[in-house]
Every structure is written in structure tokens, then in C-alpha cells.
Amino acid sequence: MLKIKNLYKKQTNSFINDINLMVEKGSLISIEADREFSNTLIDLILDKEVIGSGEIYIDQIKHSDYIHKNKGNIGVIFRDEGFYDRFTVEEYMRYYTEIIDSKVNYREIMLKFSLLEIADKRIKTLSYTRRKMLSFAREILKEPELLIFQDPIFDMDKNATGIILKNIEELCNKGTAVLSISASFKEAMLIGGKVYVLDENGLIEAEDKKEEAVTSESKEKLEFMHKIEKIPAKIEERILLFDPFEIDYAESESGVSSLNVRGEKFQCMMSLTELEERLRCFGFFRCHRSYIVNLQKVKEVVTWTRNSYSLILGDVEKSSIPLSKGKLTELKEILKI
Predict the structure, then answer these.
(1) CATH 2.40.50.1020 fits 216-335, yes or no
(2) Is the pTM of this model over 0.70?
(3) Which parts of the sequence belong to the ABC transporter domain (predicted)?
(4) CB-based contact 75:104 (threshold 8 Å)
């Protein structure tokens, strides 16, 4: 549905560097990118910025031609949006239904997003979460062939996250191509689909890395490491040593590992694979290619959709850690559930 080929664009604060991407009908692509990269990519797709070089096609049609003739087939939800604040929620949905001549029952959509209960509230009184829900509900009225969603679950509570993810999955099942762009790598992972990272180096897929074979010599080293009950992390010029039981979870982003302890993040010199080997005997579990979690800190296993799961920790922030579908069975065996 969406094809990006050798796309290049240099801006003051962002550099789209020779990226290639294909978003098929009914598929979900999730990209982690900072605000500038995210805005630039969306503007290029929507023909609001001139391409430096490369090509963009929507449904096999040059994007500028498609936008000119079929703009209504594309749903777009930005992180921050303007509304007719004087409207109530229902007035806004009814107005938009009439404007685009939608055949969708807008009240059914409101129900799916828990908006019927606030139908008479004016938009200016809504929280950020409710506004995001309203934006998504509005775009579903289009029955879009392509949906571009910026920061879908940013600053969302557990209930709102579940609603967003379930409706994204439902759209994909109906054949909509969904492109999600998040500022957080963890959020991009939780949203699911095929995950990429976009930065000045280009667009890189967050693929599973093949585990390196462990030689007998390295096994001996690991056995020795298991006897050492301190995990090193770095902060500025200091080396901190953490007791494994202090660590809530470890994560890897852009090849850099970090330890999360009491709501703070500390860079670690070891790879996630090394951390996994060292922490396994202390009750840690590789729940995702980019995450290792202390199972003693897990308070809840959440099923968002049939293919999206997460672990909720009992820390102050109630951290939500992605759980790969393929790891669910293994986790159940460990926890005997």
C-alpha cells in the first residue's frame, strides 16, 4: 500500500537518509523516531515537503497524485492536534461524519473508544488521552486504506493503551495498512508489527540477533560471573555496582544496554545477551529481544490483543515491558500458570 524507495531529505534538524520501506495492506509497521524525524517523514508522505531524492508510492500511484485524488483514503493522527473545542464530543463526530459523507455509524465508533459516556462534554474540557481517542475515532470514520499514527500510546494509561492497540489490530484485520511512528523504542515494540528505528543513519529493522555459540572457555567464565553478585553500570566517570535484586529490568536500545533501578536508567557496559546469562540464576527472564525482566518485580501479565502482551511491574512507575508472543509459553512454564 505504501512504498518508500531510496528516500532522501535533509532538513535543519533531521536527515532522512536513503530509506526504503514497504507497508502492505493489512500490515503494521512500527517505527521509533524522534519528533523531528517523525514530522519530516509524515510531511514527505503527505506531500507537504518536497522530496530531496527517491520515490514514494501509495497503492502503486505516485504519492503526490494519490494525495491529490484520494486524500480521503488516508487517515492521519498527529501527536498533538487541533479541534473545534466548542463542539461536544458527539457534535464533533456527527459533524465529521457529514463532512466526509461516511457510511459508518459514528455512535458505534464512539462506543468502541469509550466516548459515548462523555458524548455531551465539550472537547476543550477533555484530557490528552480522551482527545487522542477522539482523533482515532474520527479517522476510523474514513475507513482508511492507509493510517499514519504518530505516538499512538504516548502518555496513555493501561485502559487507553488496550483500546488503541485493539483498534489498530482490528483495522489491520480489515485490510488497512498502518504506519505507527513513536518517539519511544519501548512503545514501538509494544505496538508491535515489524519494528524499525529511524535516525540519521537511515531506517534499520530491529531484528532478532542470532545468539553466538558459547565455547567451553566462555562457559567457565560465565560460571565464575554467576558467583559475583554485583552488576556494573556507568554514570559519568563513576562505576556503580548493583545487587541483581535491585534491578527492575534491563533493556537494549540502539545496541546500548541499560539497567533500570528504582525508576532511573543506568548505562551498562555488557550486552543484553551477557546480562541474560549473568542474571538468569537470579530470576531474570528474557521476555523480549530487547528486554530482560526481574520476575520478582512482575505484578501482572497483560494481554492487549492476540499478538500483543506486556508485563506490568510493581515499581513506582508501574512500568510496562513488552512480552514477545513466542516467550509467553515459556513464561507460563516458569511461573507454573
Answers:
(1) yes
(2) yes
(3) 2-225
(4) no
